[in-house]
């Protein structure tokens, strides 16, 4: 349930409870776990950048080129560029090995 209150100044508070709250809490937990996994695999800075790129909602081609750029020194050779689907699969394979 979502319950909103206004205090007369154009601001207010929102109380979220029930299924929506549980779902949001689970999503936050999953995101924290994935962010930590990326940091463990790729280093703090690169892991944070990869997580932010994947969470950005950009088109696959942009995501692939940005991931290639960030991780080229971590596990990809500079000459070995990948298309969008291959880059994302390579990233996931590397993370879950």
Q: How would you sum up this structure in a few lines?
A:
The protein has about 100 residues and is mainly alpha-helical. The protein is built from 4 helices and 2 strands; from the N terminus they run ββαααα.
Helical proportion, percent range:
55-70%
Shape: elongated
Rg of Cα set: 18 Å
Runs in which pLDDT lies below 50 for 5 or more consecutive residues are none
Strand order of the largest sheet: 1-2
Number of helical regions: 4
Based on helices, strands and strand pairing, what is the structural class?
mainly alpha
Number of strands: 2
Question: Order of SSEs, N→C?
Answer: EEHHHH
Number of separate domains: 1
Which oligomeric form is depicted? single chain
Question: Kindly, what is the distance between the CA atoms of the first and last residues, rounded to a whole number of angstroms?
Answer: 40 Å
The biggest sheet amounts to:
2 strands, antiparallel
Strand % is 5-15%
Mean pLDDT: 76
Plain-language structure description:
There is one protein chain. The chain is mostly helical. The protein has one domain. It has helices spanning 19-42, 44-55, 60-71, 84-95, and strands at 2-6, 12-16. It has a two-stranded antiparallel sheet with strand order 1-2. Helix 2 (44-55) packs antiparallel against helix 3 (60-71). The chain is elongated and about 55 Å long. The N and C termini lie far apart (40 Å).
